[in-house]
Amino acid sequence: MLANNKFALAVIAAAVAGVAHADVVVKLGQASPLSGQIAHIGKDDEAGALLAIEDANKKKIKIGGQVVKFELVSEDDAADPRTATVVAQKLVDAGVKGVVGHQGSGTSIPASRIYSDAGIPQISPSATNPKYTMQGFKTTFRVVANDVQQGTAMGKFATQTLKAKNVAIIDDRTAYGQGLADEIEKAVKAAGGKVVAREYGTDKTTDWMAVLTSVKAKKADAVLYGGMDATAGPMLQQMRRLGMMMPYITGDGACGPTMIKLSGSGMTKDTYCTEAGLPRSQMPKGKDFEARFKARFKMDIQNYSPYAYDAMTAIITAMQEANSTDAKVFLPKLAAIKMSGVTGQIQFDPKGDIKGGAVTVKQFENGNWKDLKVVR
After folding, report:
1. pLDDT digit string (tens) for 204-231?
2. What are the residue boundaries of the structural domains of the chain, listed by start?
3. Looking at the domain covering 147-276, what would its CATH class be?
4. In whole angstroms, how far apart are CA 22 and each of 15, 164, 179?
5. 22, 58, 234, 343 — which has fewest CB within 10 A?
6. How far apart are the C-alpha atoms of 286 and 277, rounded to whole Å?
7. For the segment 316-364, what is each residue's pLDDT rounded down to a tens digit?
């Protein structure tokens, strides 16, 4: 009987030891549009976040004395503000310790309150509307320049570099598109330019003929657009069909390979875009990231996967520095982080904006976007 008791105790001790050394699973969230017109952009963000988790898991990171296995919980917000709040609550209920997302400002802003109420850090890799980090939430961060910087770069480029005196501004009425357009208008006027037309559609508009006919009649020297590639591409095609060969400048929502595909013959050397961040050629680890990204996912980078990677890595690094996966414990480490990422130095100001955010101006040439200059 004693022998049997000793055996039983040995089995229990072995089981306890096994549990003590088992990997601790930590869930991390990602939210972006994985369906709909801009699913390619959302899947780009998702892939960047996933690659960061896979890289972290290879390192067998120990937190609190135990090896941590990070697990991605990815949700589709369909680029819809209401869906974004449902998705945010779903991620909170799933027990995620941090979230990379959302992709757009219109989804990031309403979702941010839910993450704030839950005390969960949220880092957007691509939301640029200034309002996102102006709500006073201690959980809200972004790793790209905001629309003040981007809109200013677009407006100055049109008026000072391209010498446009009469400018038309069009947007898609989303938080991102309209916010960017508002900043463009301020910059154009500050530089001495005149806004001869301020028009808009929606984030679903593909027939822009009425808007463009009105713009053409007002003899604009340049057209600037705040919106995504799904709407910017058809607009540019229709512009050129109407004989409107003036410069066309769009923001980061259309600054990728899909814009080139959707615009077809509408793309000319007078087509420009701005991207909130450095060109990959100037990112400290951009070339290596691009090679590994293509090898892993068998697709080209669209826009912000390097930033999604850095956002996820920042959350994991903050956990390591705090030696805790409890958001209450590692959140202060995240707010004070100084990390060398793929895209550059990751460091936040008191509002949660990235410090030293850059904007890259690009021009279409020989079938691709060519980097023109970097504005800080």
Report:
1. 999 999 999 999 999 999 999 999 999 9
2. 11-144+282-346, 147-276
3. alpha beta
4. 10, 64, 48
5. 58
6. 12
7. 999 999 999 999 999 999 999 999 999 999 999 999 999 988 899 999 9
